[in-house]
Amino acid sequence: MNSLSVNANATVDGQQAYGDSRFPYVFACDDANATLEDTARWVAENREELLRLMRVHGAVALRGFPTSTVEAFDRVVSELQLENFPYKKSLSNAVRVNRTERVFSANEAPPEVRIFFHHEMAQTPLYPKYIFFYCEIPAQSGGATPLCRSDLLFQKLAERCPEFAKTCEEKGLCYTNVMPDSDDAKSGMGRSWQSTLGVQTREEAESRLGELRYSYEWMDNGCLKATTPPLPAVMEVAPGQKTFFNQLIAAYCGWSDDRNDPSKAIRHGDGTPLDSEAVNVAIELSEELCYDHQWVQGDVVLLDNTVAMHARRPFSGTRKILASLAEMRTHALTVS
Ligand SMILES: [Fe+2]
């Protein structure tokens, strides 16, 4: 086995610099003879450093490694030695298809559907600490994965809209979502209530919703309208470093399909509506801070989901971006 030749100072188009932090941090493998075994060993040996870099920089990109298959991506993720967070256990509203036990399609929504900035599953009481992406097939055009440093966004939001930032922090957010009674692959949020909740019957659904402290209403057409309990909107990831850990932007801009109206999707934890001007400032800031990851086949992007937000640009052609989640965490709003 060779030791792997890896450039730790590699760059990608559009890479950002904040002080001495780079976004994303990039490792490039420039060894044409490298094997998957070499890569697996390199990941295992550098596991702690990779986790630290995700935490500090938000995102770490691996380019040029011999990771040309889904199984290779699964192997890289496995070498990080983190607890798998399987899709079937998640309360995610996206329709996804498993490819290996820990790897699934990122979102089966059609190419023209834009997915706005969010922290993965921050709109549910269960979320993954990490999300990893892999490019099996890049789109013909478009299809970048925008990334945004959420700590910088919250810092700027608190400067420009201090009242709103404070209200988000104190009151948290409630999300309302209408789930179909069978998967709707046309929608970015089309996962059925049975699949979302991991149940077969209405009785089981009601018991699961009770455990999660959701309020709910059955619709005439078999759909289920569910509202979360108040969830935190801001997370202190390190002393003094706060991130805008929520799905406010995605819900406000994008939770729209045959069943859902974005203006009704999100409220503060006490039921009061959001200040739309401040929400627009948050959206504007996310665009200003955005880095678009332009995929190359075999790319792996590792995110600390509590630090970086992600999104999806529309695209044309066949695009296969896969994802894997790790370390399930729970959150709940504690009102002082
Ligand atoms: Fe996502």
UniProtKB/TrEMBL annotation:
Residues 33-321 form the TauD/TfdA-like domain. Keywords: Dioxygenase, Oxidoreductase. The keyword Transferase does not apply. Its cofactor is Fe(2+). GO terms for molecular function: 2-oxoglutarate-dependent dioxygenase activity. It comes from the Bacteria. Pfam families: TauD. This is Taurine catabolism dioxygenase TauD, TfdA family. It comes from Stieleria varia.
